[in-house]
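Appendix B. One record, verbatim.
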Amino acid sequence: MKQLKFYPHGSEQTVEEVEKNSKNIADIIEETTKKVVGISKLKNTGNSILSKSTESELGLGTGVIITENGYILSNEHVTGEKYSKCYITLESGINYDGTVVWSDPNLDLSITKIEAKNLDYVKLGDSSQIRVGETVYAIGNPIGFEFRRTVTAGIISAKNRTIKIDEDETSSYMTDLIQTDATINPGNSGGPLIYPNGEVIGINTVKITSAEGIGFAVPINIIKPVIENFKNENKFEEATIGIYAYDKEVVPYLNEVSGINFKEGIYVAQITKNGPADNTELKEGDIITSIDETNLNTMNDLRQYIYTKKPNDEVTLNIIRGKINKDIKIILGKK
């Protein structure tokens, strides 16, 4: 007689099927970890977690291979900003000098290039389809050399999270984040958050240290257009609209902003002087509801769309200003 395990909604699996599925997942995770790299800002960081140097001093972190010719996706706080140098260690133990070719501090994401070919790289999933309660795995180097490529399991606890980060006497906001209870320690930064099928749905970035079991990842969809440019053209000319805006999740954090109440769109808090939007009809305080008829609800929606455009492209914004609803055309600049 078969021994059965029962699951919600009337489904059932034999013990043999459960064991087979577990082995399949283990195989997929094993393959995925081969595409995860170690990153350091210092060439000789030592091998011991007993080192007195801290993770931030050593710049220890994680990255993931995204193309066969050596592009690595990670966090900006791990690799440094654009043109920074860092050191990449593959699963095989081979070390490479890396150069950061793109970064965005608002997303805490970066892309680093190493001179390598025929690398195995990860498959990117669709972070717009994630659901709370789904199983995920985080892969990274949580402390240092001895614990490289550690895998932790959890679920998607929430999505579209906004957190406030206070650093160097300034405040910033990260929005549209994936929240997970998979354990994420400092060295996990830059590592992938994956589905059981191995698809990357996010890049692990920050952890609330005052609470247990709360980690965050940047959704992978935001960076896909940038990756495609590097993959196909070995370059990325980043366009900019020249504004700083908040979505409705951020506005409640801002004590200096009062009387703002909007259900959709993003709030234009600042227009960059001499930028593309300067001296146009766009004004601070406007609510942008769409760009080229693509609806906007978060700053990441805007970033993701702008990443698909090139400098000197024209875009059309639909804005609300009080009772006024109008379209405004802007020529994008080069960032």
